[in-house]
Design goal:
Blueprint lengths: L3 E2 L3 E5 L5 H23 L5 H10 L10 E8 L2 E12 L5 E10 L8 H16 L3 E6 L4 H9 L3 E2 L11 E6 L1
Parallel strand pairs: 5-6
Antiparallel strand pairs: 1-2, 2-3, 3-4, 4-5, 6-8, 7-8
C-alpha cells in the first residue's frame, strides 16, 4: 500500500503492535469505554477493567495477510487509526470490516477521519474486498455522521456484538 498524504495528514500501514499503534489503541479504547460507562453507569471505566479490555484485543486480525492497521500522523505525530480485516459477507462476497477508526480528540475537525476512511477504502480494495462494513454505537454520534458523509449507509446487522447498535456498509 502506498502512503496517503493530505494537507496535514499522512496515513500509512503500520504494525498493530508498534508503539504508536499501541498508544492510539489505548487512547481509543479508553475513550469509548469511558463514554459507555458515563452514559450507562455515570462513572469512568474501572482501571483494572480498562486494562483487561485493552489486553483482550491483540489486534492480530489487523495484520497481513488478512488485515491492515493504518496510522494517521498529523504534523508527524500519531493522531489516529483505522483498521481493516477481511471477512466473508452474507452474500459470499469478500468484505472488509472497518475497525478502530479513531482520531485523537485534540485533532478532530482537521480532516483526519476523512483521510483515514479514504486510506482504509484503498487498503480494503488492495486486500480484495468489494465492500466495507462496520458497526458502531448510538452514543458515537460523530462517527455515525462521518460515515454518512462519506457514503456509508445503515444496513441490517452483520454481527451480534453486544455493543453494536448501528451497522453501516459501503460498496467499493
Amino acid at each position: 500500500m502506498t502512503t496517503r498524504t493530505t494537507r496535514s495528514w499522512t496515513v500509512a500501514a503500520e504494525a498493530h503492535d508498534s508503539p504508536a499503534a499501541t498508544a492510539l489503541w489505548r487512547a481509543y479504547y479508553t475513550e469509548v469505554s469511558d463514554r459507555w460507562y458515563r452514559l450507562h453507569e455515570g462513572r469512568a471505566t474501572d482501571p483494572a477493567e480498562l486494562e483487561r479490555g485493552i489486553a483482550a484485543e491483540s489486534g492480530d486480525d489487523l495484520a497481513p495477510p488478512g488485515g491492515v492497521l493504518l496510522v494517521a500522523r498529523y504534523g508527524g505525530e500519531p493522531g489516529g487509526t483505522a483498521g481493516v480485516r477481511l471477512r466473508t459477507g452474507g452474500t459470499g462476497r469478500v468484505e472488509g470490516e472497518l475497525k478502530r477508526v479513531f482520531v485523537r480528540e485534540e485533532l478532530r475537525g482537521r480532516g483526519g477521519g476523512a483521510a483515514l476512511l479514504a486510506a482504509a477504502e484503498e487498503a480494503a480494495r488492495a486486500l480484495g474486498a468489494v465492500r466495507l462494513v462496520l458497526d458502531t454505537r448510538h452514543d458515537l454520534v460523530e462517527a455515525r455522521a462521518l460515515y454518512a458523509r462519506h457514503g456509508y449507509v445503515e444496513t441490517e446487522p452483520h454481527n451480534d456484538d453486544v455493543y453494536a447498535e448501528h451497522w453501516f456498509a459501503k460498496d467499493l
